[in-house]
Amino acid sequence: MSDTHIDDRSDARLREAIERLPDKERAKGISLFEQHKNAQAVYDALDSSVSSSSSENITDTLLRMMRLREKAIEVEQNPTPSFKGALDQYTFAQTLSPNRRVTRWLSSTQTSPTPAVTSTCKVPTPAMSSPTRKASSRATSLKRKATEPASASPSPSKKKKRPSSSYAPPSKYAYLTNHLTDSLAPNLICIFIGVNPGIRTATTGHAYSHPSNLFWKLAYSSGCTPRLCRPEEDQDLPRLYALGHTNIVSRPTKDAGELSKSEMDEGVAILEEKIRKWRPESVAIVGKSIWESVWRVRHKKKCGKDDFRYGWQDDSERMGIVGVEGEEGWPGARVFVTTTTSGLAAGMRPHEKEEVWRGLGEWVKRRRIEKGIPDEGGLKLEVVGDGEGMEAVKEEVEEAMET
């Protein structure tokens, strides 16, 4: 059989193998075919053992060899960086486009199966300071500082206490008129003590009026009120259910975080005076921060984790105690600490707050029944203690209720 006939047969088989290549690889196979003088040279460049294989095997072998050759070129062009090279100088391989890579691979198959070495360019490495030199310089610096006389360093100054980052001075809400007033009367079962009026409460003049505030819902679900009351009924609470409300700070803010601790602490004395005047059976502290202020003022220290608890406090913590020598005193109002009802406070879930409030609500409900106050409301005022002062207070309250 003539050599020409063999070349024609090899040529046909190779063309058939190229046609079987994927679309992405077919152009490379055609370039490979055209690059060589004849088909047999392509077999020799790939692997002489596939000359007698079928066209399907030739296609697979051709595709595999092309991919392996491209991977070898990529490794050659992007060598793995070494620590030694980093200390000396960097070598950057020239980045080739996919077309140039194929052409270079095709040209290399004519002479040797080994990929051509890519051209590189060496860039001088910027000056790097030695780690030993850095350590030596640091040691020298520390030694110099240690040997310097103490008088050379400036004397430390006492840190001044600054308000929290969320603090808002009174000037921020100076434009806002506070329309909220206390709802108090003598001989109440409980007086609720809040932090301060919010923007909406100050504007409407009704306690806990923001829709997100849970006060009225918790007061009802716990049993403090026999029905769900509206914020507009806050001034009717003394007459309806022997309940009242006031705040430790009177100025309005967006939230309690805009108040300073000093403002809170200054309000404790005002609270004590109000409780001594109206003499309720109990007070409900609506929020942990209020009781922390009372604790700071009384005990001259921070209310620690072991000092705080929700619920009824010890009898020694009663508020508004009256103990004048030579006159009948008053033991003060019992203290129950409840959770905050603000919608901005997410420290406890609603059902956890209800559990705390239930301890107060059960007691308030029992006292309401004992005092004969019906669920529809109605209170007969009684005078606690002696003196013309309390009689005058009673007359003022009754006149206000009649109007």
From TrEMBL:
Q: Do the record's keywords include Nucleus?
A: no
Which parts of the sequence belong to the Uracil-DNA glycosylase-like domain?
A: 185-360
Q: Which GO terms describe its biological process?
A: base-excision repair, AP site formation
**Residue ranges of the region described as Disordered:** 105-168
A single Gene Ontology molecular function, please? Answer: uracil DNA N-glycosylase activity
Instruction: Could you list this entry's UniProt keywords, alphabetically sorted.
Output: DNA damage, DNA repair, Hydrolase
What segments bear the compositional bias annotation Polar residues? 105-140
Does the record carry DNA repair as a key word? yes
> Which Pfam families does this chain map to?
UDG
InterPro entries attached to this UniProt entry:
MUG/TDG, Uracil-DNA_glycosylase-like, Uracil-DNA_glycosylase-like_sf
> From what superkingdom does this record's organism come?
Eukaryota
Q: Which Gene3D superfamilies match?
A: Uracil-DNA glycosylase-like domain (3.40.470.10)
* SUPFAM superfamilies per the UniProt record, alphabetical: Uracil-DNA glycosylase-like
Name recorded for this polypeptide: Uracil-DNA glycosylase-like domain-containing protein
Species of provenance: Letharia lupina
